[in-house]
Amino acid sequence: MGGERQGTGGGRGPWIGGALAVVALGAGGWALATADDPAPRTGPLSAAEIRGAADGFLDAWADGDTDGAADRTDDATAAGRALRDYREHGHLTPVRLTAGTPKGTRVPFAVRARFSYEGGRAPVSYDSGLTVVRRAGDGEPVVAWRPAVLHPRLVDGARFEARETTPAHVDALDRSGRPLDTRAFPSLAQVVDGLRGGSAGGRPGVELRTAPGGQVLASVAEGAPGRVRTTIDPRVQKAAEREVALRSDASLVVLRPSTGEILAVAGSGAKGPDTALRGRLAPGSTMKMITASLLLEKKLAAPDRPHPCPKNASYGGWKFHNVDDFDIVGGTFRSSFAASCNTAFITQAGKISDDALSRQARDVFGIGERWSAGVDVFAGAVPVEHAASKAASMIGQGGVRMNPLTMASVISTARTGQFRQPYLVAPDVDHRTLATAHRPLDAAAHAQLRDLLHTTATSGSASGSMAGLTGDIGAKTGSAEVIGQKKPNGWFAAWHGDLAAAAVMRRGGRGGESSGPLVAAVLKSAQ
């Protein structure tokens, strides 16, 4: 004993047998019998039998001969199953098995193996042992099968389990292929972290454990880093970081309406980026972009047609008010939209079906569809509501939930007339399929909605913030009441040419005064 064997794919090691076999003659007596002799082998095991049985099993195992190794045990079925599990689920390949000096029928041996899983590799070394016994029936010397022969921790029905552990580090790149420095762009730290395991490539750490029990047998702590190019524009991101840093609890997203590319994601406070991409907040009057598109398509409103804007309006048992109870006497839908009149929308609630707003949001604006952006995002929700809750949804309250990403997408769709799913990583990087809307916005309604948003940006509730931006611009303000919160969340969405942005400032008050200057400053910096 004491020799080493390595997996070579060659033949089996030494084995006691062939034409002659050793049989016992009484206590301590031995004689040779021919292979044709049917008498089973009996008596104590000789050193040669112990050595032959152990060497045969270890050599077959090292060579990957699962059936051959299993046949050299007293339970070939169970041993074969365990040896296959060692290779297929433990992802272990014996490299060297070295037998030690037997102690009676017990043979210790050392294992040097290689653990290979999901591209990660690690050496594995441990000591084990086997016991040689006579097989029932024919008395052949074989290994007494126990799972612990393969590994001493395989007891009580345990099995091997390989799994990924800590995600691999990701080297995120900007749209030009330069590294994104999260020290310079702290808002992107959580965003980059969200790339792990998705489109970033690379390789996470892996480990081999026993199950149940969870004892770690081998591990590859460090995976290979991934590299992924994002759509982030460092110039726009720098402006976004600068502006949110000046404000409390603000989040912002900048898109390119013509493509859906996410150019910047920024947030102040620990949860800023989460709010920007995955927040679930009532959007207030910025929701009126979707509601207005529905009313325009259904001919329930037109920009320059007279439209009611009373101080208050009731629907479903609730009374809805305008901010400061203002009204517009003899006004048009354009004047109501530009001033963000709540009651101009509430008065139309009885003219649309309960599911009309939800279908409009999904079919035209892609809200609630499965967005595949390269990171986890919340694609908004506009549930089917009834009675007063339906009316509340029309003005962005009730069960409607959005975030800066979804509202930047909504105003992008309002500008172009066609939903283009926002994304942070190009779909061809990992062969994703982007979400699509069921249909574009009706051409006439699209032209009218753009006109309304342009009016709001130039002479309506958004004009103060948008001052200094000219040409192709549009905007919408919003304030969302939150139970138990003294000041509403302030929302603002706008576009300037082929740039669109949306922001929310929690407890900021009116959107035109809180989030408006933030959005406008970023759009101006990106000119």
Which key phrases capture this entry?
elongated; single chain; alpha+beta; 527 residues
Description:
With 527 residues, the chain is of the alpha+beta class. Helix content is 27%, strand content 23%. The chain is built from 15 helices and 19 strands. The chain has helices at residues 47-62, 66-71, 76-88, 188-193, 234-245, 272-278, 288-297, 333-338, 343-346, 356-365, 387-394, 404-416, 443-459, 463-466, 515-525, and strands at residues 4-6, 20-24, 30-34, 92-99, 106-117, 120-134, 141-143, 159-164, 170-173, 206-211, 216-220, 226-229, 250-255, 262-267, 312-315, 318-321, 473-480, 489-496, 499-505. A 5-stranded antiparallel sheet has the order 1-4-5-6-7. Helix 5 (234-245) packs antiparallel against helix 15, helix 7 (288-297) crosses helix 10 (356-365) and helix 7 packs across helix 13 (443-459). The chain starts with a strand and ends with a helix.
